[in-house]
Amino acid sequence: MTTAAAPSHPTVASLLRRADLSLRDLATADTRRLSREVRWVHSSDLADPTPFLSEGLVLLTTGRQFEAVGVDAYGKYVARLADRGVVGVGFGTEVVREGVPSPLIAACRAASMPLFEVPYRTPFIAVARANAEEVAASSYARRTWALSAQRAIALAALRPDGLGATVSELARQLGAWVGLFDAAGELSRQHPAAGLSAETAGALRTEVGAVLRRGARAGSSLRIGDTPFTLQTLGRGGHLRGVIAIGAGDLDREGRGVVTAVIAMAGLALEQHGDLARARGALRAGVVQSLQGEDSAAARRIARDVWGPMPEPPLAVGLTDAGAAWSDAVAEYLEVRADERRGTLFFGRSEDGLVIVAPASRTEVMNDIADRFGCRIGVASPATYSTFARTMDQARVARDRGDGGVTRFADVARTGILTALDTADARALAAAALHPLVEYDRAHGAALHQTVRAWLDADCSHEATARALGVHRHTVRARLAAAEKALARDLTSFAVRAELWAAFKALDPDA
Questions:
Q1: Which residues of 40-78 are buried (b: 16+ CB within 10 A; e: fewer)?
Q2: Does residue 437 sit in helix, strand or coil?
Q3: 448 burial class (0-12, 13-18, 19+ CB within 10 angstroms)?
Q4: Burial class of residue 485, CB neighbours in 10 A (0-12, 13-18, 19+)
Q5: Alpha carbon distances (Å) from 102 to 66, 107, 109, 400, 427
Q6: How much is the pLDDT for 274?
């Protein structure tokens, strides 16, 4: 991509255009070769000057090295120069010989090496001075442009939407597409608008997301299709605030300086925005806490004054895992979505997760967050603000019982209450409750554990228990009496029976 701010370096073509030098092009078939940058002009009559040359150089010669050589020597000479990166050859005539050797012209044409005649009246030093003047003029022009660009960008930063204006001004100064991605990897500002195809924008968003997930400050370059891009992170390592993407290839020193100034300004603005975001986050957390109290109407009034109306019931209340609650990227993403969907999305931190509130008919944002950030989200059954605290409990159960992604309480509830016993805590409590029976059996060779379990499964019928165990009903009564003493619990109490039955289920749900 050629930018409006691309530096105008001296070239072989610009030297040929100098009327005061009277240079004459002799061998250029490929005019593109004339546009290569000339970094310096050097003169030598050595047969092989390449050890003393550098890339981007024009070599001037009087041809003394070609005395008494064969035709093949010209081709080998030009090939060595081309391999070294020489961008042009100037032949000074009327010093050693008249005119330019035709084998040299043929060799330069074959190698697409620009060749021009330097007449006797034009000293080599004049050609070198002309190039040096162009280098100095180019350097001065670039420094002037950089100062002007930084001044324009600084003025743009003072406008109401300072970040957006800064991005637009940088794009105009570089003559390239510039985009600002937020901490969530979303393209928040760009200039020109819709300057990328959908395919290119998608590929760029994927790369930006990978950079943000790494969390380290970095600059990188890539090519998507025919367009080169430069990426530069914003913010501190571990707390990146976004990425600036520039649709241009390698920038020169002045261009990089202008971009660096913008990165510093944007980074500062985003850090200040982060301070404000943290204050808003604290206020959101307060609203969430108030919604769980008795006066949810007050919380809704506060939210309405700051962010606009809250979502209308019936509500879908989601609760993320704790990690997502403290993720800047998740908060940034939700902030953007909430701004786009005023009145249909609210979020805020709670003690053990990020609470997301939306109309029950518009829960796609929860699926988006789970997919994008790989977090777990529990979603309660449709509810109202008056039942918000109970709804939070449902969301918490759904999140903790889910295997990942979005889990709805309605799906968890269909599996029954007993599935809540399938936890390590429940099994630990159950084992402790039944431990006296196990110890008694081990010490006395009895079967209290088996008998109590069979008795509970038989709806506490002594006769049915005796048949199931193949013993007399009086044996069952005796064992239950011993079990009461071992447990120090009254087995005639329904609550005790229910607790023991739940303990057996927790340890062996399939039995």
A1: bbbbbbeeebbeebeeebbbbbbbebbeeeeeebbbebb
A2: helix
A3: buried
A4: exposed
A5: 12, 9, 11, 86, 97
A6: 63
Does 252 reside within a domain? yes
Q: What is the DSSP letter of 39?
A: -
Residues 402 and 475 in one domain: no
Query: Edge-to-edge strands of the sheet including 57-61?
Result: 24-25, 115-118, 88-92, 57-61, 40-43
Cα 227 from chain centroid (whole Å) = 20
Tokens of 321: 């895992």
Q: What is the pLDDT of residues 151-210, one digit of tens each?
A: 888 887 777 777 788 888 888 888 889 998 887 788 888 999 888 888 999 999 999 988
Verify that 400 and 442 share a domain, yes or no: no
Cα end-to-end span (Å), the chain:
72
In a shared domain, residues 220 and 206: yes
Digit-coded pLDDT (tens) for 401-445: 888 889 998 888 776 666 667 777 778 788 888 999 999 999 999
Helices 296-307 and 253-291 cross at an angle (nearest 10°) of: 160
Let me know whether 299 and 411 are in one domain: yes
Single-letter amino acid, residue 502: A
Where in the sequence is the domain holding 348, given as residue range(s)? 295-415
440 plus 472 within the same structural domain: yes
Per-residue pLDDT, averaged over 264-293, amounts to 79
Instruction: Give the whole-angstrom CA distance, residue 379 versus residue 394.
Output: 7
